[in-house]
Amino acid sequence: MYAANLLTTVIGALINLTGPGHYIKWGFIQMSLANLILIILMIVVLFLAIVIPFPHRSGGKR
Amino acid sequence: MIDEKEIQIDRSEQDDKAIEHQWTTKLRKKVEGELPPNKLLPDTQPAYVSSWIYVFGVLTLSALGVVAVSGGILALFGPSWWQQSPEGHFVNSLHLWSVELFFFFMVVHLWGKFFMAAWRGKRALTWISGAVAFLVSIGAAFTGYLSQQNFDSQWISTQGKDAMNSIGIGAFFNLMNFGQMFMWHILLLPLLVVVIVGIHIVGVRAKGVVPPIGSLPNKEDYAKPWQGKVRPYDIIKEGTIAVIIVSLLTVALSVVFSSPDKPPLTIQRWAKADPTDFVTTAASELAGTSFSGSYGPPYNNGTGAVQYLGPISLQKIAGVRIPINSAYDFVLQPLSIVPNNPTLKAALKTYESASPATQTLWNNNFAKADSKLMVKGNEIAVPKGNYGPIPMLMDNMLKLANTGALDAALENSHQFYGTDYTKPLLFMADGNYMASLATQDHLTGNQWGMMNETDKWPGQPWLWLYTMWYQIPPMSTSGNADVLVMSIMVLLTIGFASIPFIPGVRSIPEKVGLYRLIWRDYYKDQKS
Q1: In chain B, pLDDT over 70 holds for what percent of residues?
Q2: Secondary structure of residue B170 in the 3-state scheme
Q3: Model confidence band, residue B1 (pLDDT cutoffs 50, 70, 90)
Q4: Which residues in chain B are closer than 8 Å to A35, comparing Cβ atoms?
Q5: Is the pLDDT reported for residue B482 higher than 50?
Q6: Residue B303 shares a structural domain with residue B354
Q7: Any A CB within 8 A of B317 CB
Q8: Is the pLDDT of residue B169 over 70?
Q9: pTM to 2 decimal places
């Protein structure tokens, strides 16, 4: 019973995305909010990947 | 490894010379020279590889692995499993989110490599193979969306077919043929992606990671092995950690958001929901005036949707390859299989034996009465007029649709197993009901629908450029929009893959200067 409940929880969405989507309109550009979030996330991740310092380990001459 | 010096080899000098010239020997020596084990599985790497931007390559590869495993499980159990069982739907969610992660990481990886001008030092092939891998992956994902078997798949296939038809490949790559698209998705395109990604990885390992801009005195030096500082690098450990992270992210996203599952539209559902639209569409199919009926190649010799690139129509050159006669295929043939209905049989005989002029007169009269058409239950009512047997035929079309028999009749006209949905999809797309559902979900062309998914899920944002061209004049108003957009995309694709060879464009990374941030540790080290 517990296993069945766990399975139902895992395979059902915690956040339900069913229903009319939200869309952004800017001039002739139209985009779903979900797509826009993905694109913004990509830009943010690129920025963070560049600016966050990479952990250093001592390097030596080969 | 066998040391040839330690064993007695009984062969002549002539044999040795012959062996030296063997294709196998030459290939082995080339592989040994280009890819010794310490390059394939290195334990150190140049010290300048010191930025988080470098992890996106291995994250992309890991996501590809999760895509392959989740796709493999879906293939193992088959299409009805992911459609009908919660477990199957969950694995479908894993597949969807691993694909989203794959593209996410690949795009960041690609941007990073662009700003590092990673094609320097004879690494152009690595850039080209990466660009091609990205584009083939878009194709693989697109066929995946077509294979979902939900409303999104139906709509994408009916809209995308025009682009394929406009460049003459619609009959050979038929988006409405589920069986064909499924095979492309699970075999041909993944195979191609893996081969190209393999070439890309071999290129990266053989040539090494590109040194920082300005780190070497001569342009040629960038192609030589790095002679500067190195640091320890455990490639296997890095790969394992990346796979774990991507797997956990995929599971988390699937648990939190699941995946879309808007049921497909059937002709039965359409006929019940909007019988008037169904009947007027069926009447236009009978008259041959519907979009499909007057489309042109590859379906028939109509001219309604024939596109030209200047004076050339690739669509016409490819010719009629999937013959469709809308009157026969969508109306007369399905009605002819209705059993035990002598009145219908007589109506069919009256229509088919009438002269083309009489048929046209009946069809035109019925089309004029369209606006006054009423549907009550399974029967239609039109004002009195000279329609011949058309009202009787439409009555029976509606009955056939309402029972679900028309779906089956259009799908499997001549065979038991059916995987080709060209006819029912063309028929449904000719009506207004399917488009109204697509409009609600922002899937239509003028809504940038190609990028969108049903409900609130993200779709294919990587198609933004392709979608954008349709919104801009002259494409937004042209009858040749598809062939124009496809041509632009072909040119841009060639340009994208050829960036290492395009003066001006290939210098953008140096002008933008983001590379200074990426390699700041190296430059700081050099200064000190």
Answers
A1: 98
A2: coil
A3: low
A4: 451-452, 458-459, 461, 464
A5: yes
A6: yes
A7: no
A8: yes
A9: 0.92
Nearest residue in A to B49, CA atom: A54
Q: Do B237 and B384 fall into the same domain?
A: no
Q: Which domain holds residue B512?
A: 43-262+495-527
Residues B418 and B282 in one domain: yes
Domain-located, residue B38: no
Please judge whether B104 and A41 are an interchain contact, meaning their C-beta atoms are less than 8 angstroms apart. Answer: yes
Are residues B302 and B395 located together in one domain of the fold? yes
Chain A, chain B: beta-carbon pairs less than 8 Å apart: 134
Tell me what ipTM this predicted complex has. 0.88
Interface with chain B: mutation pick from A5, A31, A48, A56, highest number of B CBs within 10 Å? A31
Contact B47 A59 (CB under 8 A): yes
Chain B closest-CA separation from residue A58 CA (Å): 7
- Say whether pLDDT at B253 is over 50: yes
Contact across the interface for A35 and B231, Cβ inside 8 Å: no
Q: Which helix (H) or strand (E) holds A26?
A: strand A23-26
Q: Measured between CB atoms, which of A14, A17, A49 is closest to B108?
A: A49
**Which residue, chain included where needed, has tokens 């409940």?**
A5
B329 DSSP assignment: I
CA B425/CA B404 separation, integer angstroms? 15
CA distance to partner chain B, nearest, from residue A49 (Å): 5
CB B92 within 8 A of CB B269: no
Q: What is the CATH number of the domain that holds B64?
A: 1.20.810.10
Measured in angstroms, the CA of B389 and the nearest CA of chain A are apart by 43
Are both B319 and B403 inside the same structural domain? yes
B278 & B411 share domain: yes
How far is it, in rounded angstroms, from Cα B528 to Cα B523?
A: 9
User: Does residue B498 sit in helix, strand or coil?
Assistant: coil
More confident residue, A62 or B169: B169
Maximum Cα interatomic distance, chain B, rounded to a whole number of Å: 103
**Six token digits for residue A19:** 């229903």
User: pLDDT tens across B69-81, in order?
Assistant: 999 999 999 988 9
The mean pLDDT value for B24-36 works out to 91
Query: Using CB atoms, which residue from B55, B89, B457 is nearest to A34?
Result: B457
CB A45 within 8 A of CB B112: no
A13 has a chain B CB within 8 A of its CB:
yes
Please count the structural domains in chain B. 2
Q: What is the pLDDT of residues B508-528, one digit of tens each?
A: 999 999 999 999 999 999 888
